[in-house]
Write a structure and sequence with these properties.
Elements: H1 2-17, H2 27-135, H3 137-146
């Protein structure tokens, strides 16, 4: 710490003894500074013009991208409409198939009951004919030839 303080004091003392001379500022320096300022202003204006031109080009490109996006959006809407139409058609077909299956089943139920009733009557009739044919041999031979009993 003492070394740092000693170095700091030495530096400050040397600064006091430094020979300071005023820097002369001439008219030539002033003119040079004015020319530099003018050239910087000219460069700034040129850069502004170039940046504005680039900004306009980017805006033109952005408008092209916007038109492309609009086209893609229109195509997407058409695809969505087509998908919805296909789904509606599929749902309609499935609904029709389910209705036809239900309608056939409900329409065939009475027929099935009638067929079962007729089969029972046929069995009863064959049973009665067999009993009757047992007592009448002529009828039994006719049924045997026809392979009814």
């Amino acid at each position: 710490m003492k070394v740092f303080a000693l170095a700091l004091l030495t530096f400050l003392n040397l600064r006091l003894f430094a020979d300071t001379q005023p820097i002369p500022y001439t008219m030539e320096d002033r003119d040079r500074l004015l020319r530099v300022e003018e050239s910087i202003k000219l460069l700034n204006s040129k850069m502004d013009e170039k940046f504005n031109a680039m900004y306009e080009k980017f805006n033109a490109i952005d408008s092209k991208f916007d038109s492309q996006n609009d086209r893609f959006d229109a195509i997407q809407k058409q695809i969505d409409f087509t998908n919805n139409l296909i789904l509606t058609l599929i749902a309609g077909m499935l609904g029709s198939l389910i209705y036809m299956w239900w309608d056939r089943r409900s329409a065939n139920a009475p027929l099935k009951d009638d067929i079962e009733m007729l089969q029972k009557k046929e069995k009863n009739l064959l049973k009665a004919l067999k009993e009757y044919a047992d007592s009448h041999p002529e009828l039994k031979t006719i049924f045997d030839r026809a392979a009814i009993l």
